[in-house]
Fold:
Amino acid sequence: MLSGLFLVLLCANAQQKELRVLFVGNSYTYGYNLPHIVSIISGETSLKLDTRKSVIGGASLKEHWTGGRQLATRKLIADDSFDVVVLQDYSMSAMNQPDTSLKYIRLFAEFIRSHGAEPYLFNTWAREKVPQFQAEIDAMYEQAGRDVNAINVPVGPAWELAMDLRPSVDLFTSDGSHPNELGCMLTASVFVRAICGELPDIIPSLYRIEDARGESVRLMNHNPEEAEFCRRIANQIVEMYAK
Structure:
């Protein structure tokens, strides 16, 4: 097998401590199997993340809270035993409706804690053509983090740092909004570093799982240099935000 390529199975090391994580959001959260990639990367750390998701395209936290579009997020939180719940509002909310985002982050944070979990905030990225909006997005999530004493996972700042250090890097799909495979890899790396407190010494560049029939399914494939770049950016940005 080529150096840097790993066959990753769903089973975790029996010695690992496990956290159950629910991702709440929309296509920014489910694109390219983000929760699954987070779980796989964490399998090489001392803390295994068992991830689930409550998502629908374009959903806002208000819709998750009110049960719009047949979302059952609050029931899922109440009925299951999660350790962490990640909250992601729709991509333009920080600019267009920051007060609404703050309101539902506060409501969710109280609800999440009442059911024994901790809220984490998915600080998203600015769209490709309007990078100047990153400061507004960051400001809203940082305020929300202070208001509810929640961990702000600095994904948007990680994207900004990656593009500053490597202007040619491509993290977006053709729509200039959603993450491509590399954008998902960087996002997942930031989440693992923020929740687990560490990243593997080497992040796998090939991700495969076995389906219910035992057949191999490829989730993602990068060259080792890209995986290492994501690892370096994730470590640097999470350390910066922890200070």
